[in-house]
Amino acid sequence: MAESSSIEWTDATWNPVTGCTKITAGCENCYAHRFSERFRGVVGHPFENGFDLTLRPDRLDQPKRWKRARMIFVNSMSDLFHKDVPLSFVDQVFDTMEEADHHTYQVLTKRSSLMRDYLQRRYTKRFPPDHIWMGVSVEDRRGASRIEHLRASVSAVRFLSVEPLIGSVGKIDLSDIHWVIAGGESGPNARVMHIEWAREIRDACAEQEVPFFFKQWGGFRPKTGGRELDGREWNEWPMKASA
């Protein structure tokens, strides 16, 4: 668990699972993969096995020990709904989030249908907690089905992370979506984000009254291009939750 984070839309990260497999074009230059693989074979290092999917049960209770309330990005180095993560382990992660309810949790996935199905099972007879936010990653218009899966998910706050934005998302329906984050790719092979793609998302948020957060332009380093879009920073947050 990192007690602080350079990610602008969260305070900290918690990784009870690390490692993943690439499934979309947005995964091509994954920062987590690049970072983890640097340490493959380093005996005793947390990423000795590189980016291989790894369950870390010793980290399950970390949020309970963190007394000051934080916004926590869950599995910044993995995807909780990866098909090889046992549902019993996902249950334990959610049990911790429900118990340590002084934090707010941001769970982000590309396996959107698996997330939807899990949430429907878990919250069949009760409302989902307000402090657990569920989101999906979308990199271009090919990810539109993930938005539909998110909309069908029972969650207090549903959010989109349109990052890395590598193409136009086209016309998007943001009904029942509470927050949208957008940003460009960073790293040595970062793909360029065109301004019209970012404007397209911002304007859709404005028209549909959804808070918009512009994270970065990206480049070789995350901060290379700054955070301004059309002369200002966009730092809007969801104001209320509704299941």
Can you offer a commentary on this structure?
The structure is a single chain. The chain is α/β, with parallel strands linked by helices and 243 residues long. The chain has a single domain (12-17, 58-233), classed as pyruvate-formate lyase- activating enzyme, CATH 3.80.30. The chain is 23% helix and 18% strand. The protein is built from six helices and eleven strands. It has helices at residues 31-37, 62-65, 87-99, 112-122, 144-151, 195-208; strands spanning 12-14, 17-18, 54-55, 71-74, 104-109, 132-137, 157-162, 179-183, 212-216, 228-229, 232-233. Strands 1-4-5-6-7-8-9 form a seven-stranded parallel β-sheet. A hairpin with a 2-residue loop joins strand 10 and strand 11 (232-233). The chain is globular. The model has no long low-confidence stretch (mean pLDDT 95).
Task: Give a quick rundown of the structure.
This protein is of the alpha/beta class and about 240 residues long. Helices cover about 25% and strands about 20% of the residues. It has a single domain (about 10-15, about 60-235), classed as pyruvate-formate lyase- activating enzyme, CATH 3.80.30.
Radius of gyration: 17 Å
Strands across the major sheet, in which order?
1-4-5-6-7-8-9
Mean pLDDT level: 95
Q: Report the CATH architecture.
A: Alpha-Beta Horseshoe
Number of strands: 11
Structural shape: globular
Percent range of helical residues: 10-25%
Secondary structure category: alpha/beta
Largest sheet: 7 strands, parallel
Name of the CATH first level? Alpha Beta
Helical segment count? 6
Per the CATH scheme, the topology name is: pyruvate-formate lyase- activating enzyme
Element order: H for helix, E for strand: EEHEHEHEHEHEEHEEE
The termini sit apart by: 28 Å
Number of domains: 1
In terms of DSSP E residues, the strand content is 15-25%
Uncertain stretches: none
